[in-house]
Write a structure and sequence with these properties.
19 helices, about 5% strand, binds arginine
Length: about 450
């Protein structure tokens, strides 16, 4: 094994097991692009401030660009014995440039280096995830437009409650996703401050220009405190929170898709390309994707707990515990992307079985509230109307009838406020159309919220 970077202070090579235990290159190697981006900004600043010569700065930048190209093309592979991606790239630079390469780390520590790398890396990931969340929201808005008249039961306690439409239901998820988008952009905004120049913890004695590196890397400003600069991982927690909520939304939707596919509901049929069969039961068509999403939600929540637990007892400033941030937040990011990429085409291709939705809405006394409201509109206090309707429902259950098929005599036996027009008032279409309060399921009300959502999505 080659000498470690810190060999001067030590009289022995590090134990091979310890080196493997300590090494993070297996999981932080994916930040190579951002590490090089940060190093180029740092080398530029060192040259401009006269901390290293202009020629050395240019040579370092050229060397870093070549290393980047070689990693991209596969010509340069990571050394699994390297301690981390930062050490690997610096060692490779020195291998290629000799003494000049050794000047790159002037006035810098891996502590501010890794802090800047993760921020740059996650900034790109947030942009990609936001694009996917937006794509899902747009998919749902477009489906909603097709289904403003598709009546289905709305549930509370998973009991049929009141009639809604599929559009109304889908739009509920659009608003969750719009909040997810806000949370992501809010996290990105708060994360976008530059720790570079914090050094190991206590800044540096060189006359650096932190504003310059911050500007070069597209940050809002340098972080004002060097201790905070190297020990802050709040943004990982914040991002994981946002990701956990995205997963929670996908998971709730997945649970509904799972139910909707069952023979008990049969509201939808998944496209064959997005379902799986059974190894033994020939009739099966299973919604595995949605079950995996529901399962992976637990895993992303686990990542959040990992981050919070890792941070909670750490004294300032850097501690090696913080190396554990990466596997957690990368796992969360990877899984959210994977889930979104699979969920979007699955939803976009599923077949909606409108008749089954409507039939389900026609049973279960979903119009009972409307029946009570009919009496209220004729002057009866709501609680009395509620009681009478409850009695009528009980009669229907006993006679195996619905409110639509219960004879008018039975209605009028309860109160003569009931007349023939009750059947019109409790018809499924009326029940939906009349729920035109803002945010409600009537086709007009849903079209209004679709318009608002389209504006929010800049469509
Ligand atoms: N691999 C380390 C990490 O991910 C980089 C920072 C190392 N700093 C140190 N002082 N050992 O946290």
């Amino acid at each position: 094994m080659a000498d470690m970077m810190w060999a001067g202070r030590f009289s022995k090579q590090v134990d091979a097991g310890v080196n493997a235990f300590n090494s993070s290159i297996a999981f932080d190697g994916r930040m190579y692009r951002h590490d090089i981006q940060g190093s180029i900004a740092h080398a530029t600043m060192l040259g401009d401030c006269g901390i290293i010569s202009k020629e050395d700065s240019l040579e370092i930048i050229g060397g870093l660009k070549e290393i980047l190209a070689d990693i991209d093309s596969g010509a340069l592979e990571f050394d699994p014995n390297a301690e981390d991606i930062h050490m690997f790239i610096e060692a490779e630079l020195t291998k290629r440039l000799g003494d000049v390469g050794k000047r790159l780390h002037t006035s810098r520590s891996r502590n501010d280096q890794v802090a800047v790398d993760i921020r740059l890396y996650l900034r790109d990931e947030i942009a990609e995830i936001s694009g996917l969340v937006k794509k899902l929201a747009v998919t749902l808005v477009n489906m909603a437009k097709e289904h403003t008249e598709t009546v289905m039961p709305g549930y509370t306690h998973l009991q049929r409650a009141q009639p809604i439409t599929l559009a109304h239901h889908l739009m509920a998820y659009v608003w969750m996703l719009l909040r997810d988008l806000e949370r992501l952009s809010d996290t990105a905004k708060r994360m976008n401050y530059c720790p570079l120049g914090s050094g190991a913890l206590a800044g540096t004695t060189y006359k650096t220009n932190r504003q310059q590196t911050s500007d070069l890397l597209g940050f809002t400003a340098p972080m004002p405190n060097s201790l905070d600069g190297v020990s802050d991982r709040d943004f990982c927690v914040e991002l994981n929170c946002a990701l956990s909520l995205i997963m929670t939304h996908l998971s709730r939707f997945s649970e509904e898709v799972i139910m909707w596919c069952s023979w008990e509901f049969k509201f939808i049929e998944l496209d064959d390309a997005f379902a799986t069969g059974s190894s033994i039961m020939p009739q099966k068509k299973n919604p595995d994707i949605t079950e995996l999403i529901r399962g992976k939600t637990g895993r992303v929540n686990g990542d959040l707990v990992t981050l919070l637990s890792m941070l909670k007892g750490l004294p300032l400033a850097y501690n090696k515990d913080m190396q554990e941030d990466k596997e957690a937040i990368f796992d969360a990011v990877d899984n959210v992307k994977l889930c979104l990429k699979t969920f979007i085409p699955m939803i976009a291709t599923m077949k909606v079985l409108k008749d089954n939705m409507r039939n389900a809405a026609a049973r279960g006394f979903i119009n009972a509230t409307d029946c009570a409201d009919y009496l209220v509109k004729k002057g009866m206090p709501f609680r009395d109307a509620y009681k009478i309707t409850g009695t009528l429902v009980a009669q229907c259950i006993e006679k195996n009838l619905t409110l639509e098929t219960l004879p008018i005599e039975d209605y009028r036996a309860m109160t003569d406020l009931f007349t023939e027009d009750v059947y019109e008032a409790i018809s499924l279409d009326t029940c939906v159309k009349e729920r035109k309060s803002e945010g409600g399921p009537s086709p007009d009300a849903v079209k209004q919220q679709i318009e608002i959502a389209e504006k929010a999505l800049e469509l």
